[in-house]
């Protein structure tokens, strides 16, 4: 934990005086019910459930390991191991003087029918006048909704998916560009390989091996203009393969779903629970392809569990295709990297990544590692789409990877982003004390859910009236579920985050 | 004419001792047949016909104006005016000591049936093994043919469409990039307007006004990844408009035709004669859209005549759509610019341009100015395709335009390219004396046609065996016509051009 975050910790009103759980009858846990040899598993699961259902609130402290071990009559190693797992998952965080604190809730299974109001997802409307902020959140979001939200004036922008762009490595970029221009041949400036320059494909293969455990050859890598383009290129290849729909996570990215629909593909929703996408529900859709964000589910932040990964791979082996959108896998704070699914099943996983969350969306550089059988069709599609990405940015990026500059930049970002995440968690605890925070172990955003009496589109509209931009969770849902907000923290400094979250709290109080 | 070209002129074997037409009975012209007040028109047409049918060969000198005026009993002004028109069209060139010399033939109408062998266009084949140079030109060209030709090893590359890439303004680019990075806001690095950055759209609007006489607002300009992408974006918009085919010039670009076919659009051919595309033949196709290269037809180099332009605009006013591919309009040598059709009929012309032939294809930056009714659909298509072009190259290009660097670069290129064109014309006169040269007034390539006894695919294959890459004219035809080669001269220095053309001559002699 950084010094700055520690200061924030000490200042936090709910800090030292905050809620703490006593170990004596802590959650009425009884370790006698745990299977022998599986006590750490059992304890981690009990704690996860307690965080999910609100018995353990964000910001509350867990009992010291020594105390809980004595209470439960288990070895201290069992408690340490359980806490370690929750830390890796991003649910709790070790703070030197503050003990082990709950920072975010796992994304729980949808509660049984009837326990909360269900809102049918609104239908798309073309008549909403998106030029007025008030109408941005009325009706279902159209294809231009992100452009419209971007264009809306606001003091604070919590739109998810943007890294800290003020940290963009301008000097390193210019230095790399100078070296690239000096070494460029005339042939490099002509029409090139539509799959990307050999230099960048080589560098990306190395980067994926190094950061994602993906052993791929440069020839397997295809450079594209971001994940949006990867999907555009995939549409005809999927259709040629007899695939007319791609199942999507629910909640799951609205932008991705709009993209697939625009390509004429059905997008049956599959519920996400605290272990990842539900494979039983996936099988029930009969879809032959699914788009997943397994390393850090968007927007819930769920990390796909080991068991669920195995079930997914079984599903794929039976003839399924997984589109693995590894959209922010590099941004992790308190846990080791989750290996990519592509590393385990090359023939059934199409891996997608980009620099949008690593350097800047404006670069429009991404990559895909498709199953071998799609390679030729994708190359042809890329040729007809644009004859290949712009070459200079490709060569500059290759150099940033090879010289280690990109990795240095990522380390810098991790530090900055984790301080901003902490600032947002603190501010949420102060200003939206009733809300539950999800997905804090990685990424560039948090998702909060709250009691279902205020529709999240109303809250987002009220927030915008208060000068704060954020996305309602319902935008990212096809299935019913509790309202919430998706809050990007990476692009705003801690002071702005505190200000913005305070405005969110005021907006929610007005509506409640 | 440059000093270097003049030296080449003096050295040329067919120079001083070359063929010259006597004025006394020059072409059996009789000015009495000319309409009063239209004598310059008449003379220009007679000379054009004589160049087209070979009575006046490339490299032959026209009679001095004073001599011809006396012979024809017309005023000297009439002859000067006729020579001036031919110069503007690129058919003749004034050379200080060499008089007025024929440099290129107009692209004549297809001769009547039966006067030369007709070859049916070959059908596409997927079985050709394109990795072996010998098979590159067997069967009809597939979608990867340009990649395969690019990958083929060769000493000399006459592939058309590449400017002199060794002249790429590296220093100016880097200087502009430094300024751009220094002035960049964090917002500039985020997700932006899919239509392009405001800076570049503003700069391109100014560039089009200045170089092409096109008065457009920045809001009408859309930045795309080259003309290939513009066509990809147009496909769904055209289909939504009930257009299922786009007529194409014949001869006309193979790449463009492949692109349209890949988008599921029919490509009925329309013959090109020495005034441009034949509007009567266009009407006969019943196509509702046509793709044209009116300023410098690819590959023939024909400049659409005034009368033909009027006929085209009439056709468009009756409900037709013109896709105006202004692919190398900036590269003209001996004639004033031809205004863009878009300037005259905004609602029926979709204008397409790019920097591929101005700076480098590798930049993948182009623009389109669509008819207003297509604007929204195209914006949506661009959003789904890639969310917009890469931003840094856009901003750098905007700066190069605004600081005048791009115009300086264009002036530099014009000088270099016109010397290379002269070197190629000279070499063709020496090594392929029986061939006819077309399209020398502008652009980056020449087209030569020759007697029909050797298929041009055989000649191109033999040339590749001699280490020279070029494209057979038949690739760019759907209708039958004489064989020929399309020869890019802009990317090779004069010495290499002479070497390459000598090898073409040797290849043709082997096959004849």
Q: Could you walk me through the main structural features you see in this protein, from its secondary elements to its overall organization?
A:
2 copies of one chain form a homodimer. Chain A is α/β, with parallel strands linked by helices and 512 residues long. Chain A has 3 domains: 3-102, Arc Repressor Mutant, subunit A, CATH 1.10.10.10; 128-166 and 409-511, Aspartate Aminotransferase, domain 1, CATH 3.90.1150; 172-405, Aspartate Aminotransferase, domain 2, CATH 3.40.640.10. Chain A contains 17 helices and 16 strands. The first copy, chain A, has helices spanning 3-11, 39-52, 65-72, 76-89, 133-136, 145-151, 170-183, 198-212, 226-240, 254-262, 279-285, 306-317, 375-386, 391-402, 405-431, 456-465, 494-511, and strands at 92-95, 99-102, 156-157, 222-224, 247-250, 269-273, 276-277, 289-292, 321-325, 349-354, 366-369, 436-438, 445-449, 468-469, 471-472, 484-488. In chain A, a hairpin with a 2-residue loop joins strand 6 and strand 7 (276-277). In chain A, helix 9 crosses helix 13 (375-386). The model of chain A is unreliable at 1-24 and 109-131 (pLDDT under 50). Chains A and B meet through helix 6, helix 7, helix 9, helix 13 and helix 14 of A and helix 6, helix 7, helix 9, helix 13 and helix 14 of B.
């Amino acid at each position: 934990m950084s010094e700055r975050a520690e200061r924030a910790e000490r200042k936090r009103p709910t800090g030292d005086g905050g809620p703490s759980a006593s170990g004596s009858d802590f959650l009425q846990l009884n370790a006698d019910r745990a299977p022998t040899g599986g006590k750490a598993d059992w304890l981690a699961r009990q704690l996860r459930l307690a965080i999910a259902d609100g018995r353990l609130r964000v910001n509350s402290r867990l009992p010291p390991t020594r105390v809980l071990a004595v209470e439960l009559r288990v070895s201290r190693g069992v408690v340490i191991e359980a806490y370690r797992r929750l830390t890796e998952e991003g649910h709790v965080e070790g703070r030197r003087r503050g003990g082990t604190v709950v920072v975010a809730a796992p994304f729980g299974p949808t509660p049984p029918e009837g326990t909360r109001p269900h809102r049918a997802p609104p239908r798309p409307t073309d008549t909403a006048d998106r030029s007025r902020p008030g109408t941005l959140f009325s009706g279902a979001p159209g294809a231009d909704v992100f452009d419209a939200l971007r264009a809306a004036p606001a003091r604070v922008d919590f739109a998810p998916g943007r890294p800290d762009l003020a940290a963009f490595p301008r000097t390193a970029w210019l230095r790399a560009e100078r070296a690239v221009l000096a070494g460029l041949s005339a042939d490099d400036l002509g029409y090139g390989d539509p799959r990307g320059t050999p230099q960048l494909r080589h560098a990306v293969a190395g980067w994926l091996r190094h950061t994602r455990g993906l052993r791929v050859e440069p020839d397997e890598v295809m450079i594209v203009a971001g994940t949006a383009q990867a999907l555009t290129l995939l549409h005809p290849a999927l259709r040629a393969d007899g695939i007319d729909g791609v199942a999507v996570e629910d909640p799951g990215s609205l932008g991705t779903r709009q993209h697939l629909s625009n390509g004429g593909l059905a997008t049956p929703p599959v519920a996400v629970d605290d272990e990842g996408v539900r494979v039983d529900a996936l099988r029930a859709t009969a879809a032959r392809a699914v788009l997943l964000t397994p390393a850090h589910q968007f927007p819930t932040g769920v990390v796909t569990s080991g068991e669920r990964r195995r079930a997914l791979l079984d599903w794929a082996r039976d003839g399924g295709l997984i589109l693995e959108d590894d959209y922010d896998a590099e941004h992790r704070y308190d846990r080791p990297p989750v290996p990519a699914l592509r590393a385990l099943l090359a023939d059934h996983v199409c891996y997608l990544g980009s620099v949008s969350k690593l350097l800047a969306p404006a670069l429009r550089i991404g990559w895909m590692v498709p199953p071998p059988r799609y390679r030729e069709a994708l190359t042809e599609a890329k040729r007809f789409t644009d004859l290949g990405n712009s070459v200079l940015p490709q060569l500059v990026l290759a150099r940033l990877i090879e010289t280690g500059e990109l990795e240095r930049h990522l380390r810098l970002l991790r530090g900055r982003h984790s301080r901003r995440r902490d600032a947002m968690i603190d501010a949420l605890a102060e200003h939206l004390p009733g809300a539950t925070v999800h997905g804090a172990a990685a990424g560039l955003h948090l998702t909060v859910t709250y009691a279902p009496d205020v529709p999240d589109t109303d809250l987002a509209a009220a927030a915008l009236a208060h000068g704060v931009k954020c996305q309602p969770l319902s935008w990212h849902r096809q299935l019913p579920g509790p309202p919430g907000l998706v809050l990007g923290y990476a692009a705003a400094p801690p002071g702005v985050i505190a200000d913005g979250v305070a405005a969110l709290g005021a907006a929610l109080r007005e509506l409640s």
